[in-house]
Amino acid sequence: MTYQLKHSAIAGGTIAISLFGNPELPKLLVLGGISGTRHAITPTGDGWWQGLEPAIPLADYCIVGVDYAGGIGESELEQNSPVADLSEHARLIAEALIAAGINSVAAVIGGSFGGTVALALAEQGKITIKQLVIVAAAHRPHASAVILRNFQRDLLQLAQTAGNADLGAELARALAMFSYRSSQALDYYHPEPKQAYNYLRSRAAQLVASNPRRTAQLFEQFGPALDNFRLDPQGIGQPTLVIGFTSDQLAPPHLMTEFAEQLSNCAGIHLFESSYGHDGFIKDTANYASLVREFLTLSNKT
């Protein structure tokens, strides 16, 4: 399997993309969370969403990944050009794909932030999308998610005012990670509570050390984009498979159900038990991979 890394030119910058598989095959776009990169699924097996690989018939598709503008990765925009909302993220991705010669995709699989971007791509219609798989994301934000993201920005701003921006980004990231996991998972994997705290702080510190400025932008730009996102599900015409997790406090079951019920072409909603909370979209792929594969395979035959 070939793995190509490219930089697609757009107005005011470049978007980094990846192609895994035969580029002559139908494209399948994979979009992840705010800190996700184009390296979701790789031939070396170290992608950050590698567990999704069994869901995709690699003989039938070429997997496309992207680095979000302003996020972690190699996409670059001109200085002072913040990406203010989800529709702008979608527009930039569509522009980059078209510049790379990709005018249509067989499907978009979007998890968390990537699920909202996938919906915005479908709504805009700048590229043709045959079907959607939306995991742990919905048509509007939940109040708990908005509250948590506002606290994250407050921490960042207070630390910046105090002259310690990196600490603010670290604390904001740690709080974000806390919201991604369920209380059950934290208690099970960290029977000593202090270990759970130290784990979140250390993982957050790793991300900040890799790129302090861009980590801060995840909270300054991506957070408000999520908070302000609203979309009418009835306007999404593609067959859409919806997947959620019972312990997810950011995209809870009642919100996922509301979303699925309002879709004009829902291909089914599946809510899985998970100890991982919102991170179930990454950690519990074994529960839903076969559903996604069946959905993609049936569509590929029609």
From TrEMBL:
The molecular function terms in GO held by this entry are: homoserine O-acetyltransferase activity
Q: Where is the AB hydrolase-1 domain?
A: 28-283
BP-aspect Gene Ontology terms: homoserine metabolic process; methionine biosynthetic process
Supply the alphabetized keyword list: Transferase
Give the signal peptide, or none: none
| Keyword check for Transferase | yes
Q: Sorted alphabetically, which Pfam families does this protein's record hold?
A: Abhydrolase_1
The protein here is known as Homoserine O-acetyltransferase
Per the UniProt record, the source organism is Pseudidiomarina planktonica
